[in-house]
């Protein structure tokens, strides 16, 4: 996010193997993606959660956690931060009667 230090990796040298080149390219892509999200004040985790929730047309927070491969508690924190900004809405599940879904 804004103000966070970005680690700069030196580009691989002329003798770099394909693995090293791919790792460098992936790092650069992640860095640029995070930088592009700064305009909207989103972290990469928030952007992935928002995209996943939109693709699934909402769903349970536990399902979101599974899709993102993060702990349910972490998914709850991400969804809570998105809800505070009005980007998602948590609603009670009619089956369970507890707040567990986002849309």
From TrEMBL:
Alphabetical GO biological process terms: response to stress
A Pfam family the protein falls into: MarR
Record GO terms (molecular function): DNA-binding transcription factor activity
Domain HTH marR-type: 15-103
Protein name per the record: MarR family protein
InterPro entries per UniProt: HTH_MarR-typ (IPR000835), MarR/SlyA-like (IPR039422), WH-like_DNA-bd_sf (IPR036388), WH_DNA-bd_sf (IPR036390)
PROSITE patterns referenced in this protein's UniProt entry, alphabetically: HTH_MARR_2
């Amino acid at each position: 996010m804004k103000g966070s230090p970005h680690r700069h990796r030196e580009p691989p040298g002329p003798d770099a193997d394909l693995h090293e080149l791919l790792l460098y390219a992936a790092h650069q892509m992640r860095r640029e993606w995070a930088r592009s999200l700064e305009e909207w004040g989103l972290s990469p985790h928030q952007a992935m959660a928002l995209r996943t929730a939109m693709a699934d047309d909402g769903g349970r927070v536990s399902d979101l956690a599974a899709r993102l491969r993060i702990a349910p508690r972490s998914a709850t924190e991400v969804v809570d931060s998105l809800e505070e900004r009005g980007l998602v809405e948590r609603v009670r599940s009619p089956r369970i009667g507890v707040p567990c879904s986002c849309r």
